[in-house]
Design goal:
Blueprint (H helix, E strand, L loop, with lengths): L1 H27 L8 H26 L8 H19 L11 H4 L1 H30 L8 H8 L5
The structure holds heme C (HEC).
Heme C (HEC) binds next to helix 2, helix 5 and helix 6.
Keywords: Membrane, Transmembrane, Transmembrane helix
Pfam family, one: Cytochrom_C_2
Protein name: Cytochrome C
Length: 156
């Protein structure tokens, strides 16, 4: 009979829904709640190293030393990577090559990251539309060094 079946389903489905809810909330917690300080430093280091590799690949391509056909892919990966940098720097965890100024002047630092994302988006668009010739003059707009001069510990 229909009504009996429905009651049974409801009593078993409810606890299952509750567990699903708890699991879902778990995925929304900020990374800092289950990553220790070294994890936070390592993660932002991975992101920056990826950007370093993408930037190096684009420079190679713009000098004709790597396949021009890859330019749009490399630029798009750089754009995506730049987009996750801000979250990685948000927890105030000193160390690595990050100067304390990153968090002391967070407004300026995060604004620079937003500008990086905008510049990388522009480079990626240029790569798709105009290829290497359109990308080469824009590479300096990524201002990697401008930020490093202020916020990254210079290696001796
Ligand atoms: C808004 C500021 C900012 C911008 C823009 C920026 N960086 Fe960085 N970068 C940093 C900081 C701060 C560190 C040090 C992070 C740390 O060690 O925790 C860093 C570190 C690095 C590292 C060293 C990573 C390691 O652990 O060895 C590389 C490589 C790098 N950046 C590449 C780039 C490239 C390439 C660009 C441009 C496409 C760029 N960065 C743009 C702030 C910036």
């Amino acid at each position: 009979m229909f009504s009996e079946g429905n009651v049974l389903n409801r009593t078993t489905a409810l606890p299952r829904l509750a567990w699903a809810g708890i699991a879902f909330v778990g995925t929304l917690l900020p990374i800092s709640s289950f990553a220790d300080d070294q994890d936070v430093r390592d993660y932002r280091s991975h992101i920056m190293k990826t950007m370093g590799e993408q930037f190096a690949a684009l420079n190679q391509i713009s000098k004709g030393k790597a396949p021009a056909a890859d330019v749009a892919t490399q630029a798009e990966v750089l754009r995506i990577t730049a987009g996750v940098a801000k979250v990685a720097f948000t927890p105030k965890v000193l160390g690595g090559e990050a100067k304390p100024e990153v968090w002391d002047k967070w407004d300026d630092f995060s604004k620079r990251l937003d500008e990086l994302v905008a510049a990388a988006t522009d480079v990626s668009k240029a790569a798709k539309q105009g290829g290497v010739a359109a990308v080469t003059p824009k590479l300096s707009s990524l201002s990697c060094k401008g930020c490093h001069d202020v916020y990254r510990v210079q290696k001796k």
